[in-house]
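Its record is quoted verbatim for completeness.
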Amino acid sequence: MKCHPNLANLAGPCAQVVFTAPVSSKLTTAWELTDELLGKEEDGMEFDDYGGELGHMVQSLLGERNAEDGSWFWALFVYGSFTQEWLRAPSRVDSTDLDTFPHIAWVAFRTAAVDRREENERVMKLLGPKPMKES
């Protein structure tokens, strides 16, 4: 089976997991890809849907909830098809277009007692220079 170029990479506080989705015209946003891949998994995902401008906000992925004390949260990173680099998603998950950002990664982003620059460097090292090869 040919895999969709969209990869969903989860780098949680304890482990890293990678999912791929088959080609589908139904998958046009990062939300649709996340829902397709994690919606069927046990403890796959929990999002609050605020609708409109805010859309879906992640609360839990694969049973790992955002830290109650705010020390980390699930952040969406994308790989730009034009820039050829990972970056923090420039928009909400509902409007992150998979044509422009064909690879996504949900990363546990630390906020407490961590320099933001150092945390960005940690995430970039974790994601690597390029997405994993398509299979």
The CA atoms of residues 90 and 96 lie 8 Å apart. The chain has one domain: 3-127. The chain is about 15% helix and 35% strand.
